[in-house]
Amino acid sequence: MKTDELRESYLSFFEEKGCVRRPSDVLVPRDDRTVLFTPAGMNQFKNQFLGVGKLEFTRATTCQMCLRTGDIQNVGVTPYHHTFFEMLGNFSFGDYFKREAIHWAWEYLTDKKWLGLDSNLLSVTVYQDDDEAYNIWHDEIKVPSNRISRENEHENFWPAGAPSLGPDGVCGPCSEIFYHPNGGKDNVEIWNLVFTQFNRVGDPPDNLKPLPKQNIDTGMGLERTASVLQGVPSNFEIDTLKKLCLAAGDAVGTNYQFESAAGRPLRRISDHVRAVTFSIHEGVNPGSEKESYVVRQLLRRALLEGYLLGKHEPFLFQIVPSVVEIMKAPYPDIAKTVENAQRIIKEEEEQFLGVIGKGLTRFEGFVKNAEKNGLSKISGEEVFDLHQTDGFLIELTEALAAKNNLSVDRAEFDTLMQRHKEGSGSGAFLDSVMSEGPLTALHKTTSDTVFKGYETTEADAKVVGIIAEDRLVESLVEKGHAHPVVLVLDQTPFYAEAGGQVGDTGFIESDDIHFEVINTQKNGGLILHIGHLLKGKLDQGQTLKATVTEPRRSGIQRAHSATHLLHHGLQSVLGQNAMQRGSKVEEDMLRFDFSHSKSLTSEEISQIEDIINQRISEGANVTTELMKLQVARDLGAMALFGEKYPDNVRVVRMGDFSIELCGGTHLSNTGQVGLCKIVSEEPVAKGVRRIHALTGPKALEKTRNTEKLLQEIAVQLKAPRVDELPHRIAHLQDELRETKKQLLKFSSKSLASTADKLLENAATVNDVKIVAYYAKDASRDQLRELADHLRKKGKHVALILGTVIDDKVALMAAVNQYLVKQGLKAGDCVKAAAQVVGGGGGGRPDMAEAGGKHPEKLEEALSTGSSYYRNKLEG
After folding, report:
1. What's the predicted TM-score (pTM) here?
2. Are the CB atoms for 767 and 796 separated by under 8 Å?
3. Domain residue spans in the chain?
4. What CATH homologous superfamily does 553-704 map to?
5. CA–CA gap between residue 764 and residue 652 (Å, rounded)
6. 560 labelled as ligand-binding?
7. 287, 645, 772, 844: least CB-packed within 10 angstroms?
8. Where in the cell does this protein reside (predicted)?
C-alpha cells in the first residue's frame, strides 16, 4: 500500500465509524503559545478535551503534520525517527472509549479489507493497573497473554510518569500496538491508544480522580506504518521518502544507497529539507528566535551534512521541488510557495557557507586541544564563542563533537547564553500546557459570545462573566485602576483583535454604570472586553449598552480595506509571489508584511500606490459572504498560508479584482478609504519586506506636512518656488565643491610649510633626517600628503607620523627608495610603533600604515618608531 493510499484508507475507515474527518491543523500554531510547532494530532482538539466551548462533533479523525526536534540526533540513524512526520489519529470527546478504540484499531490493522496484517505478528502493552484494557485485549480480541505486557507509568501513561511525578491535570493510561516482522526478530511500535480518563490532583496515593467525560486520543505514525506495509527496513525507504533521499543524493552529487556511508547524512538532509519547506510555506523563515531558530538549526545541520560529503556550494534549495512532488497530493497549497522557499533556503545556505569553513577550522582546533590535554569535553565558553562569532548553533556543535567522541559543557554554554539573552532583552516563551484558569472555567459554563459588530457598533448585552485579579467574581466595585478588569458579554459589537486588526475601544454602560473598554481580545469563542469600571457597580446578569468608539472603528476599517488594495497592488506589480505574511491594522494606519527578496524601487512604490488610489477612485463595492472553506478556495480567495481557518469562512470581495478570506470589519465601498499613502518600505526578515501606509485623514495630514516642509526648505534655501528646489540645491552643491577645492589648496600649502619646518628641526643620523610628528586633527589623506612632501623635500628622510581619528590611532611610516636599498624598512618601523598603541599593520618597504586603540600612548609610539630608525642607522 502506497503512503497516500494508507492516509486515505485510515481516514475512510474512521469516517465509517462515525468520526468527522478534519483537515490537518497548521504546522505552526500561532494561537497556541505552549508549543512552537504542532507535535501531535491532539493539539488542535485541546478545547474539546478540556470541555471548553461548544462541541460541534464528539468523534474525529485526522492526518496531522507534526514537527518535533527532541530526538533530532537520531534522525537518519534509526529507521523511524523524523523531525517532520504525519500522525494518523482518531479521537473521542466524551463519546466512545476503550472498547471501541481497541476493537477498531485491531479491525483496521488485521481485516483484509483494510491493512490485513497477520494478527500473530502483533503484540500489545497496557498500563500495569489497567485491567479494563487488558481484559478487552485478552478476552474480547483474543490476544494471548504472552503477547500482552503490563508496563509502568513511565512507559504506558500520558503524560509519562504523571501518577507519581505530575503534572496535575488531565491524564490517562496508554495501550501500544507493536508489529513484529521477520518472525518476531524486530519490534516496531505502530499505534498508541491514550485513554484520558483521570484528573491528577496532588501527590499519590488516590490522586487520580475519574473525569466526568472520558476521552480517546490515538496516534499512528503514517511513515512508520507505511514502512511495515511496504516491507522496507526504514521509514526512509517508503515510496515517498525514498524519492526524497534519491533527490538529496542527486543534489549533493552522491549516489544514495541505504547501507552506504552517505546513507545516513542523506536521510538527515531529506528529512530536514522537508521540515523546512513546510515551515517556510507557513511563513516561518530562518532566524534567531523560537520557530525561526529551529528552522535555521535544521538548515545548517543539513547543509553541514552535505559540506562534510564534499558539497561546498548551496544545494538544499534544489531538493524543494522533490518535497513538493511527494507531498502535494495531501497538501496542494505547498506547490504555491516553491520559488519562495527555494530562494530563502538558498540565501541562508550562501550566508552560512560564508563562515562554515572558518568555523570548522576553529572547531577542529577545539578537538585538537581536547586531545592534547586529555579532555573529553569542549568548554562552554569555546562553544558559545563559536555560536556568537561563526553562527554555529549549539546543537550543530554537539553533533560535531559526538562524531569525535567528545561532549560539550552544555551547562556552561546555557549560563553564558542566558546572560546574553538577559543583556539583549530577549524573553522566553511560555511552556505551560492546558492549565486551568478563570477563562477555562467560564468556557465550561458560558456559550460563545455572539459578535454583532459586522452589522452595528452598539448593542444591548448581558454580563456573563467578570474577571478581576485573575479570578471570576460575581460583582465588582473598582476602587483602583492598577490592573484592568475583563468583562464577558453574551453578545457584543466590539471586534476582538484578530487577523492583524486591533481590538475595538468604547464603553459599556447604563445610567449608573460606566465601564471604559481600552482593548478587546478573544479567547476561544469568548470576546474579552478589557478596561476599567469608572462608575457604579457591576453584577453578573446585568443588561448594559455596549458602544464602540465609532470614529476609531471607521479609521480601522479604512486601513483594513486598504490592506486588501495594497495586496492587490503588490501582486499586480511584483507578481503572485508577493504574498501577505502578516499585517497590523490601526486607525488610519497599516503595516503590511509580504514575501519579496529585494527592496522596492521608487518606481515600483509609485506604481503600487497608483493602483491602490485608482481602485479607491473607482468606488468599487465591498461585499462579504459566509461560505464553506473549500468553496472559497475554489473561487480563488486568497488565504494566508499557515493561518488556521474554520469550516465556514468569511469572504471579502472588492469589485472584480480582489477576493480574500478575512474576518475583519470593512467599508461598504473602496471610495470610503479616501486616500492611501505609502510612507515607508523596509526589510523585516529574510525574504520578507514591510510597508507602512496611511489612509483617510492621516494620509491627507502626511501629504500636507510634506508640502509644508518643502515650503520651509524653499524659504531657507531662498528658492522662489518649491519646484525650483532641485535647481537651487544643485547650485549650492556646486558652490560647496568649489569651496572644498579652495580649502584643499590652502591645506596643501599648510602641509608643505609644515614639512619645511619639520625637516629644518629634524635630528640627523648619518646624513638621514629622522622625523617623528604628531599631526593633531589630521586625516589619513593629510598624513599621506605630508609624508609625500617630506620625502620630496628631503634628500634622505625616514619619517613616522601619527594622529587620532575617532579615538583610534593612525600611524604612517615612510622612507626614500635609497634608504630601502640600505635595509631601512617603513613596515618594520610602523609595526614596532603599533605594538605600543595595541595595534598592528604593515605595507610596502617604502611606505606602511598601522592602527591602534590606545591614543594616550601615541607620543610613546612615535618615539619607538624614531628609535627604530636611529638604531638601524647607527647599527
Report:
1. 0.71
2. yes
3. 3-233, 272-424, 438-548, 553-704, 753-874
4. Threonyl-trna Synthetase; Chain A, domain 2 (3.30.980.10)
5. 89
6. yes
7. 844
8. Cytoplasm
